[in-house]
Amino acid sequence: LCPPGVLPLCCRPPAWDRATRPPPSPLLPPGLPLAPCRSFSNNKIQVELDESSGVAMMKFKSPPVNSLSLEFLTEFSISLEKLENDRACRGVIITSALPKIFSSGLDITEMCGKSMEHYAEFWRAVQELWLRLYGSNMVTVAAVNGSSPAGGCLVALSCDYRIMAENPKFSIGLNEAQLGIVAPFWFKDTFVNVVGHRTAERSLQLGSLHPAPEAHRLGLVDELVPEEKLMEKAAAVMAQWLALPDHARQLTKTMMRKAVLDRLVAHREEDIKNFITFISKESIQKSLRMYMEMLKKKKS
Ligand code: CO8
Prior knowledge:
Blueprint: E1 37-41, E2 45-50, E3 55-60, H1 70-84, E4 91-96, E5 100-101, H2 116-134, E6 139-144, E7 146-149, H3 151-157, E8 161-165, E9 171-173, H4 185-195, H5 197-206, E10 210-211, H6 212-218, E11 223-225, H7 230-242, H8 246-266, H9 268-279, H10 282-299
Parallel strand pairs: 3-4, 4-6, 5-7, 6-8, 7-9, 8-11
Antiparallel strand pairs: 1-2, 2-3, 9-10
The chain binds octanoyl-coenzyme A (CO8).
């Protein structure tokens, strides 16, 4: 079920039950030192963990558009693993440090004109990230503060709760069909589990990118808030989810998500082979090149 080195949610020893720790401290009286805060950062992601609340803030900081390159995916997985293994951390809020973009999805240049070995390594990293995030023991809240197509949408969909900035210029969706490619079954499963079969079917076939208000109507995001209130709201939602005992919430999450996670784990190698066969077709390579050119033209 879990990536190597990570115990399945239901098999972790009681020490993992973060709810056994004392509850988060109320506001500190004047004169006392500030709540301990630990941070770590790599080239692509910055993380700050507030030990008093048990909440980490993870910010994507990979200009221009937080595209999920092999390096980004690897750093994202490592950051999640660090938090997952840290007993002080119970929840993570995922957002972007860049204005207007949450994440532009998988880095298309990683899927163009590269070797079979590279495609295999890249796709394994995409799988790994999803297994970690979708199967995380922590409460995961996506604070979507910009556009979030394809793989960016998958990141948000894999969280427990999604809050989006109320800006109709920001859109979110699995738009793979627009690029001439097909979202794999586990992207689809994750989407169906959030919005239901009919909405997912229509949206996937049309490769729709839904402006924030529409995404909210469809249930793709749980809440819309004015941009300046996004982080405050994310913190409030996190506190609400953390008020429950961890073990009950975690086991419930496992119950809801296990079948979908197991399906990829059981077919992981086959899924990598399918990806390589599909992505190396000349017709698919041509579609991706044309899409990249379209992005560049749109700019000029
Ligand atoms: N990968 C690589 N480069 C990208 C990507 C990307 N996903 N998105 C944007 N860029 C590049 C642009 O080409 C541009 O490069 P340059 O500066 O060299 O010209 C630069 O980033 C900035 O882009 P924009 O000028 O377009 O920035 P804007 O702020 O105007 O717009 C958007 C930002 C809205 C994110 C816009 O760039 C966009 O729509 N990007 C495309 C997003 C997209 O369609 N992503 C889909 C990726 S595929 C995926 O995630 C799942 C694949 C599943 C594979 C299944 C196969 C079997």
